[in-house]
Amino acid sequence: MAMKIDVSGLKKYLLPAGLAFLLLINLFLVLEFFGVEVIDRYVKGILILMQINIILAVSLNLINGVTGMLSLGHAGFMAVGAYVSAILSIFLSKSNLPEVLLFPLVLCAGGLAAAFIGMLIGVPTLRLRGDYLAIATLGFGEIIRVVILNLDITKGARGLPGIPNYTNLWWVELFMVLSVLVIWNIIKSNHGRALVSIRENEIAAEAMGVHTTYYKVSAFVIGAFFAGLAGGLFAHYLGYISPKSFDFMKSIEILLMVVLGGLGSLTGSVIAAIVLTGLPELLRFLQSYRMVIYSLTLVLLMLYRQEGLFGRDEASAELLRKWLTPRKKNHPGGEAGEPTES
Amino acid sequence: MLEIKEMRVAYGAIKALKGISFSVNAGEIVTLIGANGAGKSTTLKTISGLLRPQSGSIIFEGREISTAPSYEIVSLGISQVPEGRRIFPRQSVLENLELGAYQRKDYKGIKEDIQQVFSYFPRLAERQNQLAGTLSGGEQQMLAIGRGLMSRPKLMLLDEPSMGLAPLLVQDIFRIIKEINANGATILLVEQNANMALSIAKKAYVLETGKIVLSGSAEELSRNEQVRKAYLGG
Ligand SMILES: Nc1ncnc2c1ncn2[C@@H]1O[C@H](COP(=O)(O)OP(=O)(O)OP(=O)(O)O)[C@@H](O)[C@H]1O
Ligand SMILES: [Mg+2]
Hints:
- The complex is a heterodimer.
- By secondary structure, chain A is mainly alpha-helical.
- Chain A contains 13 helices and no strands.
- The two termini of chain A are 26 Å apart.
- Chain B has helices at residues 40-47, 70-76, 93-100, 107-120, 122-126, 137-149, 167-182, 194-200, 218-223, 225-231; strands at residues 2-11, 14-24, 29-34, 55-60, 63-64, 78-81, 155-159, 186-191, 203-208, 211-217.
- Chain B is α/β, with parallel strands linked by helices.
- In chain B, the strands form 2 sheets. A 6-stranded mixed β-sheet of chain B has the order 6-7-8-3-9-10, with helices on both faces. In chain B, strands 2-1-4-5 form a 4-stranded antiparallel β-sheet, with helices on one face.
- Chain B contains 10 helices and 10 strands.
- Chains A and B meet through helix 7 and helix 8 of A and helix 2, helix 3 and helix 4 of B.
- Magnesium ion binds next to helix 1 of chain B.
């Protein structure tokens, strides 16, 4: 029964592909340890950003896709995590705390700070719905950015330099895998079923005895925590952050990954994060046409697959087979059509 | 079991309920009939905690619940089957039923109750893995009732279960409501179909623009001249 925490799906779809990919990267890293350089700094940088984006997309999917709350302020939470963890580690780098302890510590502090801000924002705004919620979260995201812009400790618009470069592929990998696992488990647990019921029909969910306010805020807070974590990884990768990195466009970029992968599909988010981070790099040879092709790809995808790459399904061999078999129209007993809202 | 006193509910300036009082005893089927906009759905939503009354009291098994949140009211044993088949369209039939048992942790009991629902509605059993949004209107209504049973309610609030159903199916649904009642659940039934409602209920109340204008045993009311004219078509 679906009441127990379900990891079978995870084993079937995500693990083989994901593990193979990670193993390959780790193999490269181990080879490097013995002096054989397989991937260069540039590729490593892309791999790091990809995984940071995976954390961002998956955490926003919990809010937007699974619970159905349109949030446009995710970059704000990322900013909180980035600044809090960066300031802490600049401060603590003079202490003799070893990096293996210090780094996870400051990252968690960043995540918790973002979660706290998420709660402050969530409690008053989450009674709003749809467009109204989107505008409220957009506003709060901008407020966070403006506050950072005007504080002394963040050094305002000049940006914060001198952040220790703790982030490497190992760390990112660790936190990416942890984030995906935690969020996957939330979605597949009883907690996740409550979140989905809110997305499907909030009034019915309430009538079933789901404490809707609690669950909505919880999704928001958990999503904010992981965005903060990603922000910390981002800050310690670049070594320098400024409010510009966390503006509205960044929120849109993350939203794009979620929508493109399919609202509610975690594997979709993971794959969309990989593609959308990698694609602009692959298209670099096109020079100034690059962004045109990139945008065009997005438009075409939305025209032909409105529900995103994976809809609400998780990626699997089964789904691949369904895609490859030609679709017959209205054949009885076949794929269920888009259900109607009641 | 349920005692409502002078309950007033308003949507902003619109006074939907202007102080109604009625009671439901354990084991009964009680029906609330009335025209469109009389305030029937408002009454049920207020009992189940989706709306707050301005004043008055709602006492369930000796406890005042008019200020309790809906998740607490569900855990006390009241379950609402909302108007208009508010099922979860992108979830399967089975998942919908499981969500009805959301507050329960006894997996074995839940499994048994799912079988019980399937025995009431064999059509749902055949379609247990189908997305609920693709069910026919009647099947969605069966699912909504089945889902309402999954919390093992002591009191079930049914809002127009016969709405939009073919006559044969209406009879089926009412037969099953009687069966559910015989199996121990008390039922407060809101209906447009006054004929059917009065035929299975013990007690009835007639609601008109936010006020209870008539009450009595169902038998009495079905013979009442006013009721016959207004709700029974002659
Ligand atoms: N959300 C709302 N906002 C404002 N007015 C409302 C709202 N919901 C209901 N009303 C009004 O309250 C009154 C009672 O509505 P209610 O839904 O309880 O009627 P009802 O008896 O269930 O009718 P029906 O048989 O048509 O379902 C109506 O006049 C309606 O217009
Ligand atoms: Mg109604």
